[in-house]
Amino acid sequence: MLVPTTCFNCESACGLLAYVDRETFEVRKYEGNPEHPGSRGRNCAKGPATLNQANDPDRILYPLRRSGKRGENRWSRVSWDEALDDIAARIRRALSEGRPNEVMYHVGRPGEDGYTERVLAAWGVDGHNSHTNICSSSARAGYQFWMGYDRPSPDHANADVILLISAHLEAGHYFNPHAQRVMEGKARGAKLIVFDVRLSNTATHADHWIAPWPGSEPAILLSIARHMIERGQYNRDFVRRWWNWQEYLHEVHPRRPATFEEFERVLHDLYASYTFAFAEAESGVAASTIEQIAEIVASAGTRLSTHTWRSATAGNLGGWQVARCLFLLSALSGAIACEGGTFPNGWNKFVPRPIYTPPHPPKWNDLTWPDEFPLACNEMSFLLPHLLADGRGKLEVYFSRVYNPVWTNPDGFSWIEALSDESTIGLHVALTPTWSESAYFADYVLPVGLGGERHDLHSYETHDSQWLGFRQPVVRAAKERLGHHVHDTREVNPGEVWEENEFWIELSWRIDPDGARGIRRYFESKKQPGTKLSVDEYYQYIFEHSVPGLPERAAAAGTTPLDFMRRTGSFEIKRGVGAIHEERVPENELTDTHVDALGRVYARSPKPDPPNIVPVPTPAPDSEGRRHVGVQIDGVVLRGFPTPSGRLEFYSSTLAAWGWPEMAIPGYTRSHVHPKSLQPGEMPLIPTFRLPVQIHTRSANAKWLDEIAHTNPLWIHPTDARRIGVKNGELVRVETRIGHFVVKAWVTEGIRPGVVACSHHMGRWKTEDNGQRQMMATVKLERKESRRDLRRERGVEPYESRDADTERIWWTDAGVHQNLTFPVQPDPISGMHCWHQAVRVRKADPGDRYGDISVDLAKSRAAYKEWMARTRPASAYSPDGTRRPYWMLRPLKPGRDVYRLR
Ligand code: SF4
User: Fold this and answer.
1) Residue 754, class by beta-carbon neighbours within 10 Å (0-12 exposed, 13-18 middle, 19+ buried)?
2) Cβ-proximal residues to 836 (8 Å cutoff; 6+ apart), any chain
């Protein structure tokens, strides 16, 4: 029997088809789901490897409670009931005592549409914490300052020129759905341009690959922009209609004529210094090569698709300017929301209105949204140990969910310190399908389901379309097709593995057993009030009420919407969404309008209640409380963009008003690894790239993937290897500003000279045998004063298990955990951790062993303080007495009154 579900191994959410044995209900394999509009039947290696994860002999099958000291790694089995009652009681106590923000949920891969955010909202806690500031916040900030939405949706398949600052054919965001469309574009004749300091698999497919000095990408992009401006090779009408040039002239050049022609003159002068020669001096890429690329970009017209994610944005101080400058090229070309161009993500995404929408929390959480970062794109998650050490708060209950902060974040030893301290983190609940370095420091380890073992909804901006994907527990769906009744997913999943939808409903009922707190009502059945909401009813409601076209499509197939989704796993709501900014605002939304001097249109008409609740930035109302409904252009009221001006913001009044006027237009910020910032002997380390067939913590026991990729050597150019006297495969010591790690050198011309690179996907470790033995080395942790060491004792070895293949393991390598040696480096604007490191590389000492790590926590604390000093806090710079610009996106956005600084 074929049962569709969705891959849970990266953010792309590709469709999978489980092949389920009709008699034994064993899942035999996973393949691609051809019905899925995003992935269209294709997967990367990690999709089919879901089977390995499900059958992993080391996976956690039962709830566990620690029986020794925290971190001692002693466990005993516990029932779900006992765990739930204990956790619920602690949360209930925190809520009763007015400490709602002592409940925190820290998520790695959400893989869902906001379900858990709504759970937190129902509890009244501002406790959402994400991994986004170690992943994509700088890219998001660059996009959000331009268009309100924080992600791009490029139409690669129809582009003539595709410009990528990332490795999208192997590991970028939405990479399989995007990669197949990049290749379609190439097959149509599109030119592919790739900026990457490494010869990635993506770069190997490029027509033009350049390897700029890390952080110099904006200098190159601005030189291309200058070239287009000087030659008049830009879309003049698009710029006139859609850029907020009037606002820019008004704010910055109030004495100059407020005409478009004047703006063009200013624009010319603004970027005149960004010559190809300047770009060459900054990047090391020949001016003639940049000029050649500039000609290609300028020739694309509106068929220019661009994308950057992680990569340079995630690596550098000011990395958000990489996205801002890349989008500048699209905005100059008018290649926005058109065939072959780049769309705002929110238009190519569909989040259906759920059965309940609880109000957002009434209290601000300073541990996740501290004063120093009013413009941070997401929660300052990776600073948590330092914020706790500052004494800024404590936590009663901390959920880590499909997240491994000790291993994934920079400065992991500080996380070990924080997680070991019961006085600041009262209870750590690790919701995880696998053992992780962080789970060892938990009080409860609760096993949650993999891609074929849980329900979720998702929709991503893979192309100009809106689709909905449905993840489901495949054995449950298979059994139900054959007439079995399944009450909860623990009945069909291995051991007592549970899906989180049901877990959160049950936990919420136990927090508020009699409904007196007003929490339980969000988890009750609508059909039978007073009884528990079932997962079937939850999704049935959504599919029947909130997904346009689905009920009709299901009826045509002779079935219900829920059954239709259980059989197809996805639904395409709209194909070709198009240019929403150009849509006229209908007359019924234009009651009592007011048009201001910048053409912003405000009206008193009530806000429509659409079925799609994708988060939208909220520009401020006018002084009389009218709602911002659009923008008047050439006498017509159009939807525009969800920015304060309603237009694309070449000039960000937000940056200007919140203390960063010098950053208000797309510009070039020199990175912390710019040559002028490096000490003698230092070079940049690029740690931001994935291995295409691994996925952080979860894939460590995917045996097919482990056999392919199980190491992360240091990419080093032959000239650098000669300089330090190291040969291929020899050990080197890489010294960061807080410690060092020991790794093997991979001498290759596939890296820019003067720069080294090491993938962050490897280096998993355990201190004892419970763990993912196929990809975790066994180590010893040592501490002496402020020094912390990790010494490798054994690599991976064959072992006996219920899977005979584990005795055939031939690799011993598990890579090196470099992130432990990185200090926190928060970008003062986006809040993104700036991953690139200034390092010294030398031959390893005679006593060094592969995988050794050493860190000085006093130095990591000093680095934290040094980077915090770069910020411009809301309390000093807020223009209006608020903590953060209200219009910007924020998970669990509280009401306006909560934004006020006290
Ligand atoms: S790209 Fe690969 S890992 Fe990501 S969702 Fe698709 S199949 Fe899964």
Assistant:
1) middle
2) 214, 215, 315, 316, 671, 672, 673, 684, 685, 686, 687, 688
Q: Is the pLDDT of residue 347 over 90?
A: yes
As beta bridge partners, residue 81 has none
Strands 570-575 and 465-471: antiparallel
pLDDT band at 11 (very low <50, low <70, confident <90, very high): confident
Atom of ligand 1 nearest to the CA of 12: 5
Among candidate residues 23, 309, 348, 355, the one with its CA nearest the CA of residue 155: 348
Lookup result for tokens 């598990």: 814
pLDDT at 16: 98
301 φ/ψ sector (left φ>0, alpha ψ -120 to 50, else beta)? left
Residue 389 has phi, psi (to 5 degrees) of -65, -30
What does the alpha-carbon distance between residue 590 and residue 639 come to, in Å, rounded to a whole number?
A: 12
Number of Cβ within 10 Å of residue 802's Cβ equals: 7
Q: Which residues line ligand 1 (CB under 6 A)?
A: 7, 9-10, 12-14, 39, 43-44, 46-47, 175-176
Nearest-atom index, ligand 1, CA of 9:
3
- What is 266-297 written as a DSSP string? HHHHHTTT--HHHHHHHH-S-HHHHHHHHHHH
Pocket test residue of 8, 14, 53, 460 for ligand 1, highest count of atoms within 8 A of CB: 14
CA distance 847 to 853: 13
Question: Among all chains, which residue has been given the structure tokens 């750590």?
Answer: 428
- In 3D, which of 324, 348, 298 has the Cα closest to residue 466? 348
CA of 9 to the centre of ligand 1 (A): 6
Residues 763/775, Cβ–Cβ less than 8 Å = no
Q: Which helix (H) or strand (E) holds 467?
A: strand 465-471
Q: Could you tell me how far CA 37 lies from the centroid of its own chain?
A: 22
* Whole-number Å distance between alpha carbons of 322 and 312: 7
Closest residue by CA, ligand 1 atom 1: 176
Q: pLDDT tens across 157-170, in order?
A: 999 999 999 887 87
Instruction: Please tell me whether residue 201 adopts helix, strand or coil conformation.
Output: coil
Q: Ligand 1: which residue has its CA nearest to atom 2?
A: 44
What does residue 543 show for φ and ψ, rounded to 5 degrees?
-70, -30
3-state secondary structure of 158: helix
How far from each other are the two terminal CA atoms of the chain, in whole angstroms?
60
pLDDT band at 606 (very low <50, low <70, confident <90, very high): confident
CA distance 334 to 229: 13
Phi-psi region of 830 (alpha: psi -120 to 50; beta: other; left: phi over 0): alpha
User: Ligand 1: which atom is nearest the Cα of residue 32?
Assistant: 7
Q: Please tell me what DSSP assigns to residue 368.
A: T
